[in-house]
Amino acid sequence: MHKRFLLLAILAAFPPPLSAANLLENPGFEAGANFWLLPPSGRIFANAASPPGAMCAELTAGEKEVSLSQCSVSVKAGYGYRFSFKARAEGYSGRIHSALSLPETRRRYAGKAITPTAEWKTYRHFFVASEDADDCELRVACSPGEGRIFFDEFELVEIGRVTGMFAVGSVDENESGLALQTRFYKLSLGKGRAYAPEALVVNGNKLLDFALLSLSIRGERPINDFFGNLPAEISVEDKEDRLAIRTIIYYGDIAVVTRVIEAYKGRPYLKLSYEIEAKKDFSCARTTLNLGVGNTLNSLGYFANNAVTYRKNDKPQWFSVDRHDSERYLCYLDDYGSHGLAIIGADASSWKKLPGQLLCSARTDGGFTLELIQWNKREVRAGDKAYFELFLLPLGGNRDASAARVLREISAD
Question: How far apart are CA 202 and CA 296, in angstroms?
Fold first, then answer.
């Protein structure tokens, strides 16, 4: 590759999600209850918390579940959809469940159960349709209890085609999520993990176990995409020479993370990029991209003292290695020299913003982790952004030369 793809250029290449049409009829109840099925306890009325004339739906909880639904919704196989709505509650402490149901197979695309608050809040989830259907039912249901629940601004938007054959390879859906398959590797993306990378496999060898982005606010528990069950929406850009998979992940009201995975035609490596944008002011302990390599890769090679230095995983422990600004790669190798993985800093400027010492650990069951840190002990303001940009290169043969060659190639303008 003779030109480095910048993360901002990739983000700009995707059409804005807000430009897509809402597939629901009467989403804000401005036409009363038309197109909606309400229980006897439900009603449509003027929403005082919205601009004059705006309407919302109200359900009264009781001994049995109450729900609000709309039928005759259409979806297409292999396409991604974002479903969102606003809700608030008065005197209600139960849970709201939302799902789109397909009539023929009874398959349900369910969102995460939520507990509404007294303030209006937007809730969203994303799904990929596995089949064509023209008469789906969209339904939100409130568990038994007491109190009132209010709904407004429903939206179902088609994001675009996600699965199928593309120029670079295929993206397929399975029970655990999505799989990107090229002639060189298979990358698994976990559906319950905000589509985070959870396995990179080459010739049956697992080179990467996970890529986890964690955001830590001082005094609070960290939030991460791998275990946090965060809302995420995924889209795919297909071009003749590459495939880009973009995932937007919502870290509550704190930040929005855009993850872009790029696969290249005729190239054995892939690019992994993150943009973290703060949505409000907060005191950040640190933001960490944590990568875990396969447990057969028990040698770590890194550049120090004008040569590649190797370190074995002989016991579990934390340690640091110097960040080298020109030879910005780390190599992870198996015991027999048959396979490995290089993690390469794709962008010199974002690489130099990392700490001078890169935090690593030797894992108990084999392999290593690498922690890349931004916003360390920093007062973050709304609109601030941080970036991680890496290439993941499966290794074989002359490993160090391969990583250095790719680094030179991708750094050329």
Answer: 13
